[in-house]
Predict the 3D structure of the following.
Amino acid sequence: MHFAQQGNYMERTREDIISEVRAMVPALSLRMNGQPLVYLDNAATTQKPSQVLDFLNDALKERNANVHRSMYELSDLSTTAYENAREKVRSFINAPARENVIFTSGTTASINLVAACFCQRFVGKGDVILIEGDSHHSNIVPWQIAAERAGAEVQVIPTDVMLGEGRSGKVAVERLAELLTDKVKILAITQISNITGLLNPVGEIISLAHSRGIPVLVDGAQGIVHSPVDVQAMDCDFYAFSAHKIYGATGVGVLYGKKDLLEALPPYMGGGDMVETVTYQKTTYAQLPLKFEAGTPNFIGAASLLPALEFAEYLREGEVGQALKEEEARIKAFMEQTLCSDPEVEVYGTPMGDKAPIYTFNIKGINAGDLAQLLDKMGVAVRSGLMCAEPLLNSFGATSALRASFAPYNTLEEAQKFVKCLERARKMLA
Ligand code: PLP
């Protein structure tokens, strides 16, 4: 499948290119409550291009057979599609080899795998697992469960808000050196926060942790969408992301790991496909990556990562990439001038310039859930609640918030409609 760049940007306007991109994603033409849908919940999940939808449909019709198990042609076709997607993921994140790329059911599953297996092997009583104050629940709770089993403790790198030193929501990286004691066995960080949209200095954090011999897991659930990822340049030890947030199927995720570490970990789940030989007494395990892929995987969903990542590349590269980057800059400037400049609105995550287009906020005296419901009536889909980051939101003094999260296929016009509808909803609730 190939997403050819069509025509010449000199001849096509930015609007032409954006229309072409949006026409590839059928859900963007839906109407909700009688209004054209303005979908601004992309941090939760992205809409899928036709290429992915067709791929899924064709795979179910033409390549539906279990993978890695059989000698017949249909199974070969399915296995090839699954392994082609693994190769696509490998090249997309620049992993050294396919052995480094494990298919899971999502970011959450990838982090749970590392938390359980790493702590079983390397973490004991009195040890420390270090996480970040801006973490999603998926990068908090698995560590708490694993720490409890190991008799270890979870400690947190605070944000400036937690320290009472500011309201930016930035992780206090300057505190890291003193927190990285001999007791710390692993550090779990976030590339881009799903609340603040802020980009953490992952390279700086990783090199500091490595200078103390501490491995680092990066939660890339949002990072994979909004920034190019090169796991070798980043030098992370583990990297986790979900297919559904980057135009792929739900129920599929990726865990990248360095080979020596993955080999040192015990298996996670036992079952078919992850074994070499089995007797009633003892089992020997398959080589990487299958050692961590017990049971029938979501082979059709995983295979759809091939067209999904091709679409992600198409959105990033060449004249399309340039046009969408310009549109994103226009959206960010508009959001800064409107929502973010309103004294009655607190947007969590500043400075505005240096962040992904994710805006989580509260309007003084107005319930976020009520706003979200009214916006829905106007065709605008935004998230409200805790966004699976209760400790971070609580640190800002919020028990719920509204979040508008943009994808590369969103337009300035949609941002304008969102702000206009928000104004109307606000007046209705004032
Ligand atoms: N981490 C971050 C930063 C996220 O934004 C999310 C999803 O919103 C997750 C982890 C969990 O992803 P999933 O539910 O796909 O496993």
About this structure: Residues 73-93 form the longest helix (21 residues).
